[in-house]
Write a structure and sequence with these properties.
By secondary structure, this protein is an alpha/beta fold. 26% of the residues lie in helices and 23% in strands. Helix 7 links the parallel strand 8 and strand 9. It starts with 8 loop residues before the first helix and ends with a strand.
Length: 331
C-alpha cells in the first residue's frame, strides 16, 4: 500500500465521509495504510482546528447518539435519549445577499444551546436557473456555481458553529424539491455523467449526511415535505400518525394533535419549520410583490428519556432580531 501524500486533503476527507468515517474502509478505498491515514487525518485536524475523527457524540447522560444510514426506502433512524436537535429549512441561499436574520439567528441559538444534531431540512439551494419554471421577464438569476458556492459558505458557517458548540455533533440534511433540482437537471440532460463525482448535490457538502428523511426514536419524522398547503402541519400528522417536522411551506408553527398513541400521553405534533431565508428576498419574485403566509425562523426539538417535549420555535421578529424562549435576541 502507498502513503497518503499522493492524495489531497479534499480527496482524503471526501473518501473518509463517503466510507462513513471508518478508517479501515477508507484506507482500502485509497490504497493506503490505516496508520498513514490516521496520521494524515490528525494533520488535517491540526491545520483546520476541526475534530475530523471525533468519537460518536453522547448525550448529557453519556448515552451514544446513534445515526444509522440505511439503504432501503424507510427513513434513517436516529436514537437520542436526552438531547436537542435544531432543524432549519428553506434557506434558499442567494449570492450577493447578506446573511439573513434567520441564518444568523440559527448560528446564535446553536452557540447558546449546543445541540446534539443539526438538520438542514431541505431547500438550502434554490436552483433558479435550472428550474422547470420559466424566468419572470428579465429577472436576474444567479448561476448554479455561484449558488453552490454560497450554499457551501453558509452551510460551512453552520457546521463550524455546531462543532464549536459541541464537538462530534451530527450534521444531517434532507433533500428538498429545490435541493434536488441539480440532480434532476443533470440526470435529464447529461445522463452520460452518471456516477461522476459532483453530479449529486450532496457531493458538494461532504461534512453533511443527506437522506430523504430521518426518524428520531421511531416517533418523530424529519422530512422536507409530505403534504402541501396551509393545512400541511395537520395533514402531515394524519398521514404519518407520528410527529412530523417539515419545511417546504415556509410557515412556522406547531400544531398539536391528540391520538391514542401511548407515547407522550397520545400527543403528536405537526411542526412547520418556517424558512431561514428572508421572506421578501429576491429569490421570491414569483410572488409578484403580493402577500405571503411565510415566517422566518426554525425549530428546536428537545428529547427527555426518549420522548419529544413540546417543540419550540425561534422566530424572526424584525431585521436582526429573533425571539426564542421568552427573550428577544439581537443577531
Amino acid at each position: 500500500m502507498a502513503a497518503t501524500h499522493g492524495h489531497t486533503n479534499e480527496q482524503i476527507l471526501e473518501a473518509f465521509i463517503r466510507n462513513n468515517r471508518v478508517t479501515s474502509r477508507t484506507a482500502r478505498a485509497l490504497n493506503v495504510t490505516e496508520r498513514a491515514l490516521h496520521a494524515r487525518l490528525k494533520r488535517i485536524e491540526q491545520a483546520t482546528g476541526m475534530p475530523v475523527r471525533s468519537a460518536a457524540p453522547k448525550d448529557e447522560n453519556g448515552n451514544i447518539i446513534r445515526v444509522n444510514i440505511t439503504r432501503d426506502t424507510r427513513p434513517n433512524p436516529i436514537s437520542l435519549d436526552n438531547g436537542v436537535i435544531v432543524v432549519g429549512s428553506d434557506a434558499h441561499y442567494w449570492p450577493g445577499q447578506d446573511a439573513s436574520t434567520g441564518h444568523r439567528g440559527m448560528l446564535k441559538v446553536i452557540e447558546l444551546i449546543k445541540p446534539d444534531v443539526v438538520v438542514m431540512n431541505g431547500d438550502e439551494f434554490d436552483g433558479a436557473k435550472i428550474s422547470r419554471h420559466a424566468p419572470i421577464g428579465w429577472e436576474d438569476q444567479p448561476d448554479v456555481l455561484a449558488e453552490l458556492r454560497e450554499c457551501q459558505a453558509k452551510m460551512g458557517e453552520i457546521a463550524d458553529a455546531a462543532r464549536r458548540a459541541k464537538p462530534g455533533v451530527h450534521l444531517l440534511g434532507t433533500f428538498g424539491n429545490h435541493t434536488y433540482r441539480l440532480d434532476n437537471f443533470l440526470a435529464s440532460h447529461v445522463a452520460q455523467l452518471r456516477g461522476v463525482f459532483g453530479t449529486k448535490f450532496e457531493d458538494h457538502f461532504p461534512n453533511w449526511t443527506y437522506r430523504w428523511a430521518w426518524t428520531v426514536n421511531e416517533h418523530t419524522l424529519v422530512k422536507h415535505r409530505i403534504r402541501g398547503g396551509v393545512h400541511a402541519a395537520w395533514n402531515n400528522t394524519a398521514a404519518a400518525h407520528i410527529t412530523t417536522v417539515t419545511g417546504h411551506t415556509h410557515q412556522l408553527q406547531v400544531m398539536p394533535r391528540s391520538t391514542m398513541s401511548p407515547v407522550n400521553k397520545g400527543t403528536i405534533y405537526g411542526v412547520d419549520t418556517g424558512m431561514l431565508a428572508d421572506p421578501w428576498g429576491p429569490q421570491f419574485t414569483y410572488c409578484e410583490q403580493g402577500p405571503r403566509n411565510w415566517r422566518a425562523g426554525f425549530a428546536v426539538l428537545t428529547f427527555n428519556n426518549g420522548v419529544l417535549m413540546p417543540p419550540e420555535l425561534c422566530q424572526v421578529v424584525d431585521d436582526g432580531v429573533i425571539f426564542f424562549r421568552g427573550n428577544t435576541i439581537f443577531v
